[in-house]
Amino acid sequence: MLGLGTLRRVVGEIRADVGAARDRDPAARGAGTFQILASWGGVQALLSHRVAHALHETDVPALPMALSYTSRAVTGIEIHPAARIGDDFFIDHGSGVVIGETAEIGDRVTLYQGVTLGGTGFARGKRHPTVGDNVTVGSGAKLLGPIEVGHGAKIGANTVVIQDVPPNSTVVGNPGHPVRIEGSKVEGPDTDWIHLPDPVADAIKGLSERIGELERQLAEARGGAPPEERVRELRPKRGPSSAGG
């Protein structure tokens, strides 16, 4: 049965979700609570999930899945009623987000549109990701299977993650590769997807430099001049930050 304590918990979670939207979406900073509840699809989907999850935990039949289905039809966001989601959760834009039955999400997590926390295989039991606190997942990223994403991790846009992600790391690519970010730590959720490290470009650059060195050594051994440099140096993409500033 739904008790007064459960209702208070759900109301508190919804209040925190509205606050998370106001903190992380610049468009919401001048909006009132009612406007956010009425206009932000990610917040609406979370509101529906908080209620559906409370009903699911009290073994109410059918209604939790009906709420989930209705929320998906309205917002384009599918969250299974059994999924466990922490406080201060925010889904930006949100269309196409899927969160599976056994997914677990920590506090202060941010997801962007098109993110999937999906399962692998047909066996029951734990088959969806566990996401730690303070994690940011970029647009279109796919986290598949019972993997663990560590505290403070950052998943780049369109990354496919099929292995555990260490805490405070960044993962990009398909399949996802852990990489390190140079420079100072960004305060708050980091939405700068332009300046992510590129491990493939770094590897090609290393091979190019190695080939050039071997060519120079071969030319010296033969007593000739080193070959003219014909490989264009790879440079990191530069441009304004998508996070502003």
What does this structure look like?
The protein is of the alpha/beta class. The protein has 2 domains: 4-179, UDP N-Acetylglucosamine Acyltransferase, domain 1 (3 Solenoid); 198-245, no CATH class. The protein has helices at residues 4-24, 33-39, 41-57, 63-75, 199-222; strands spanning 78-79, 84-85, 90-92, 98-99, 104-105, 110-112, 116-118, 130-131, 136-137, 142-144, 148-149, 154-155, 160-161, 170-172, 177-179. The strands form 3 sheets. It has a 6-stranded mixed β-sheet with strand order 3-6-9-12-14-15. Strands 1-4-7-10-13 form a 5-stranded parallel β-sheet. Strand 14 (170-172) and strand 15 (177-179) form a beta hairpin. Helix 1 (4-24) runs antiparallel to helix 3.
What letter string, H or E per element, gives the SSE order? HHHHEEEEEEEEEEEEEEEH
Query: The biggest beta sheet, please?
Result: 6 strands, mixed
CATH superfamily of the largest domain: Hexapeptide repeat proteins
**Please, how many domains?**
2
Structural class: alpha/beta
Indicate the percent of residues in helices: 25-40%
| Total strands | 15
Poorly predicted ranges = 181-187
Beta-strand content bin: 5-15%
CATH hierarchy class name of the largest domain: Mainly Beta
Output mean pLDDT.
82
